[in-house]
């Protein structure tokens, strides 16, 4: 018997368009009606673009059919039971004095958060900040992450409700990191969250900001996140993005960064969870004398698909950038690396380097790597390269001849390959924890 149209759940683009119509009136509440035109433009752009297909060059190697066929509900409210609390706390930073803001299924969890800031530093839920930081929020929110050709940024903007707001005032230098933790729990039906983060470092400010996504094992859900990060003149920001989603989850995220004159920005990304995960990291070096760095590590196993798209946009003269991404793939996992360095015509004296290396641990694993240079200036120094290989059997034999078991020897070699990225983590407890996770992961799998 054919199901009635009234009972057949909507999927794909149509489910989100219908949900927006149902929820639109509620968006104008709580003094945030100024966002309505932005939301309407965003849902209009999403309706035009829909879910990208593999005919789209930017999605040629990432098939979203499994995501598009799911019927996602709004994330359920949950009570913080012992399991959820223990799980969330296992990801909290051990650094003394760290400011930590936690969200569970997209909802702020004050019981798990530690937000006692001082000297004008603001870390709060974005929904709360929109009420009393109106001018600053309006100046930056949804102003940097463009909607054109980015359907999931458009979708996130249409459903913009909450996330983290961070403001580091002028010349304020933070020793302890700021941690944004997003936890997803199990539910009877697949659900979706749209975390939206706005991070602002004013002139001369310095900070380390960690953004973590984690889900309970077996939970099926969709995280659609967007982060806008503004690095003011002569500011210095280190941003860490850690993705430990459930093995059944979908994770699509965009990080949009704008750098002002003489600023420094470094991105450190680790992606190891999710059934399908994609990170888009776009950095605009918009002021003269900027320094930008992107470091990434992705670890795939089973049938995971991990997609990394990066853009370093040199829009001003005398800027430098460095990019190193590494991948380790096992089982039938696959990955995409598409890294683009774009140099505008007036961005003379650009110095840019890009590297992508991938280690394949099985015959069924696959990597699609595409480093790109788009250079429209003539006084520049730009290089890029990519390599794909397997474990060095002679080095493995050497370790085994010294009495090291094969599984341990392979894990040590894999860690050595990954260490170039992990060693750049300048938060001690985080670096040590991630190093142990990587070694334990591959020892446990016996690869």
Give an account of the 3D structure:
The chain has 447 residues and is α/β, with parallel strands linked by helices. The protein has two domains: 276 residues, no CATH class; 56 residues, no CATH class. It is 24% helix and 37% strand. The chain has ten helices and 21 strands. The strands form two sheets. Strands 1, 4, 5, 7, 8, 10, 12, 14, 16, 18 and 20 form an eleven-stranded mixed beta sheet that branches. A hairpin with a 2-residue loop joins strand 2 and strand 3. Helix 1 packs antiparallel against helix 2. The N terminus is likely disordered.
Ends distance: 48 Å
Main beta-sheet strand count, sense and barrel state? 11 strands, mixed
Helical stretch tally: 10
Global structural class: alpha/beta
The shape is globular
Percentage beta strand: 35-45%
Give average pLDDT, whole number. Answer: 92
Ranges where pLDDT stays below 50 over 5 or more residues in a row are 1-5
Overall domain count: 2
The gyration radius over C-alpha positions equals 22 Å
What does the secondary structure layout of this molecule look like, with pairings?
Elements lengths: L11 H16 L8 H14 L15 H4 L4 E2 L7 H8 L9 E6 L2 E2 L13 E4 H7 L1 H7 L10 H8 L5 E5 L9 E7 L6 E3 L2 E6 L4 E10 L5 E11 L4 E9 L5 E10 L4 E8 L4 E10 L5 E10 L4 E10 L5 E10 L4 E10 L6 E11 L5 E10 L4 E10 L3 H9 L4 H17 L5 H18 L2
Parallel strand pairs: 1-7, 2-6, 5-8, 6-9, 7-10, 8-10, 9-11, 10-12, 11-13, 12-14, 13-15, 14-16, 15-17, 16-18, 17-19, 18-20, 19-21
Antiparallel strand pairs: 2-3, 4-5
